[in-house]
Amino acid sequence: MHPPRTTAGRGGSKLALAWSIAKRRAGFLLLLGVVLGTALLALCLTPAQLQTPLTDWLPVSLDVHPSQLKLPTFCILAPPVQLQQDLEACEQLCAGRPLSPASSGPGKDWPFVMRQTDQFALQSIISLRLATISQAQPTTAEEADFLFLSLDTRAVARCLATCRYRDDLPPTLDRTKIKSQVGEWILEVVESNRGRRSYPSLVLSLALIDHDYESNILSMEMQEGIKDDVVVLGIERAPWETEDKLSAFEQMPYPSTMHLPLRRDEQQSGLSDLGEWQCGQDRKYLISFAGKHEPNSANAGKGPHNGFTLRDHLTSTLIDYNTSDPSLITLHFFTPRSPRAELASVHLAMSQSTFCLQPPGDSPTRKGFSDSLLLGCIPVIFREGTYDRAWKGQVELEELAVFIDEQELLEGAGEDVVQRLKGVSEEKIQRKREGIARVAEKVHFGLPLSVEELRDLGAGWTDDAVGMLLKQLSSLKSSDGF
Length: 482
Hints:
By secondary structure, the protein is of the alpha/beta class. It folds into 2 domains: 9-259 and 448-477, no CATH class; 273-443, Rossmann fold (3-Layer(aba) Sandwich), CATH 3.40.50. 35% of the residues lie in helices and 10% in strands. It contains 17 helices and 12 strands. The chain has helices spanning 12-24, 26-29, 81-94, 122-136, 153-160, 175-192, 220-226, 273-279, 298-301, 308-324, 343-351, 367-375, 406-411, 417-422, 426-439, 451-457, 465-477, and strands spanning 74-77, 113-114, 146-149, 202-205, 230-234, 248-251, 258-259, 285-292, 329-334, 353-357, 378-381, 402-403. The strands form 3 sheets. It has a 5-stranded parallel beta sheet with strand order 1-3-4-5-6, covered by helices on one side. Strands 9-8-10-11-12 form a 5-stranded parallel beta sheet, sandwiched between helices. Strands 2-7 form a two-stranded antiparallel sheet. α7 (220-226) links the parallel β4 (202-205) and β5 (230-234). The longest helix has 18 residues, at 175-192. 44% of the residues are buried.
């Protein structure tokens, strides 16, 4: 593996150092089956200022074929090397418990490749895929459609949040200084590139939920500085304490441990292979529920969006039914420290169930919603608007999910959750299954099985969540949109 070359001579030494760090971080990305070191890490030149008006953030249909769009180009901007090294040290010292080895799947016809990617792998996946496109289509910051801020936002959250509980940090890790450096670098990049395009042309991916960044990247001061210039990618848009001022926020699907092989986005008739597999499953259970009885932390359980009152209610109802008829419902209860290896049995149960309950937990959204769609299990949600931003008019959520009002259940108004789901007609169930089969591959992150496959397929349009993101960005830079 050789370091990439750069035409920006004055940035050569910085590039060499950044490349060295990228190689050391490659171990994590091996979890995705590829190595980050194969991607181009470019330090781009500061572009000239362009004073043009902001356009709207435009939705794009699921059915828009890549032939109607132009693949956007990217230039990757790396933070200062010392900041990268400090964040890396924070991540190593303050990371949560390590991931358990991924299972091989619960059955011989299991269509997914399993990897140790959890729901907070978004930033790593996006960094790898956009760097691959940047390598295949080298460009300068002046020419690129988008500038991607390659900041390890998971490490930022670890350093500025988790690490505050540690009293054994080395004196070289000054959290206050690191917070200042993160903010200064982001604002410096935004300010020097403000107005370079008529649309928000900088991209920043968050690894965790936006609450984890309310005191740093998404503080009110920072949002004021970046709101009209940066497309922020995240798995959830539900601030706890600060007002949301961002003009362009793309709600992405939660990454999963389940992946399909990466493939090109090509027009096809009929069901995909995944859709065929979903329709062929024996849905012997009416309902599946897997979740925690308690929040991950006392602070998390106090969040304004938490759903533990609803979870307690659902748990009580489901246990009563399960006691009288175990064949009706499958239950998996976890604690915050339950081993991730148990996910294999959860995924199997979901693939054998008609409905999968997805109540809020520490925050409004759940990884289980995306997993439900992959496994062909109709998600049941309890708060309106929770996932609407993930679709932006591409598909109506009611085509995929069942909505049951949280307050009605808690107040005892009407039937309980089991009776309501028993009352859903077979016709509606079939329509929702067809809708899920149509979108399921769009909400997963395709897995390149080799470096060569990454270079070949990952540099173009792909039939997965990253492919949909590229369509959104292509639509954004087009004044016409779709």
